[in-house]
Amino acid sequence: MKTIAFIIPPTVELLDLAGPVQVFTEARFYQFKINIEFYVFQSNPVSTCGLGFGTIASFSDAELKDGDYVFVPGMDQNYVRSPAFRKEKKFFDWLKDCADRKVNICSVCNGAFALGEAGLLNGLECTTHWRRVDELQQRFPQTKVLTDVLYSKNAGVSTSGGITAGIDLALSILKDLAGAPFTQKVARGLVHYLRNNDHKKEVIYLDFRNHLNIKIHDVQNYLVDNLSGATSISNLALVAEMSPENLKRVFKETTGISVSGYLTQVRLETAKTLLKNPENSLAYVASRCGLKTASQLQRILK
Fold it and tell me: According to the model, what pLDDT value does residue 193 have?
């Protein structure tokens, strides 16, 4: 049985901690077997809102094995900038030792700074709260800090954006452990739709997503992942398991935009991303976006 160990740092942001904890707690409600443990690296931590925690074991007492997980949630940025934070060398060394023993290390929000201090971000892509992206990049220049993503997953090291993005990272990890159908059930229990967007721009994936219709999410997921594939309404109807006419009606009622309008938006944002690379020709980008000619692409870019 795997263990998920949550570190409670001084000045912890409550939702950074509680969101991922609730994901795995909900999974246990549905009979998924997993241990949830809590540790500190300073005694009696107090959250940013003033809520204190009782006696909790030190990180040094944790007995983690290959395949387990450590989550480091975000904390007050003034503390992260302080000499006191940088002096937590024993904790940073412990994180590095865990990683060396194949324990998966995860951060939420500016918890990424702890991973950086441990040397775990060197040479990797990572992310953090959008307010802290530039600061993280400047402080740890050997990493590549991604913007506008919910989370970034590498082998053994994962980071998420701010606050609720920690829930998305936790759901993605649960999907790795328990599969997509089970994770969708957990997400529904949390009243949180499954935003599985590793390295996809948030604007592409999150627009028109404020709903809980799983079949429509399936269609949206399919379009994001298969732009150059079969995107006809008849094929999308098969994905949604409903008739083409019913899909068009339900999609518009659920998202506020038509299927064709949503498809155009996804193509537009994907094209803008691909065109940032000067080596990508218009014809290549058009093909990746499911368009037959560069002129078609130019029309939607206007």
Answer: 67
